[in-house]
Write a structure and sequence with these properties.
- There is one protein chain.
- The protein is mostly helical.
- It has 14 helices and no strands.
- The longest helix is centred in the C-terminal third of the chain and has 13 residues, at about 190-205.
Length: about 240
């Protein structure tokens, strides 16, 4: 069952242990910033409260009164992070128009673009990118990118948006995985992960980059028995 705005937290060591417990291709959970809890939201005041509820009028009023647009909550979330979690696109626009930082990281090193990408929120992502938010940032405790996170989860529409916005195709995170590798190693091999892999192949992602143990994407797909992905990679010239 999918939980919309949060994913299980794991440490890098735990992710590696899971990934290699049954060999180099076992699945590992994603780690992402958790959305504000009900208790946190109840304690919000000022811009955080307006952002959480999507109160555009209050955002504009507070911005005109010179409120700190990038004020942080206890988890390092700015109002933009909070309203991105809540999918209030008009509030995203209002904060951006007032001058809020679009590329700031929270305490877990997540930006608004990665938050929207992980949530499979294509419309909020579209708004953020149109406003000038970057798809190129290194984010998370894994030194990854929004593209890697979206590829892991099989969010193919998000992946296509990020590619079009210039996301680095071949970034290697500190687990030594690329977006291509995560789509294979951490995906379910189903239609959305296949579409994700196709988007990466079509965009020219490097299919020869190896994981920490020396396996190529094609070898990993074969090891997992992902026949459709194997055919895609072979057709693209992967070795």
């Amino acid at each position: 069952m999918r939980t919309p705005n949060c994913l299980l937290r794991v440490t890098p060591a735990a992710a590696l242990a899971l990934a290699f417990a049954a060999g180099p291709i076992a699945s590992a959970p994603a780690a992402a910033q958790v959305a504000p809890t009900a208790a946190e939201a109840a304690g919000y005041r000022g811009l955080h409260a307006a952002a959480f509820t999507g109160n555009v009028g209050e955002i504009r009023k507070l911005a005109a009164a010179k409120a700190d647009l990038n004020v942080r909550d206890g988890h390092g979330r700015t109002p933009l992070h909070v309203t991105t979690f809540a999918r209030h696109r008009d509030a995203v626009r209002a904060l951006a128009e007032a001058g809020a930082g679009l590329d700031l990281l929270d305490s877990d090193r997540y930006d608004a673009v990665t938050i929207a990408a992980v949530a499979d929120d294509e419309e909020t992502l579209r708004v953020l990118l149109a406003l000038g938010a970057s798809a190129r940032q290194v984010t998370s405790r894994y030194d990854g990118t929004a593209l890697i996170a979206a590829s892991h989860l099989g969010h193919d529409g998000v992946v296509r948006q990020l590619i079009a916005a210039g996301a680095p195709l071949d970034h290697v995170n500190n687990l030594h995985w690329t977006a291509v590798i995560e789509a294979i190693v951490l995906g379910d091999g189903g239609p959305r992960h296949q579409a994700t892999l196709k988007a990466l192949i079509d965009a020219g992602a490097n299919l020869q980059l190896r994981d920490r143990t020396g396996n190529t994407p094609l070898q990993l797909a074969r090891s997992r028995g992902l026949s459709h992905m194997v055919r895609m990679l072979e057709a693209a010239g992967a070795k």
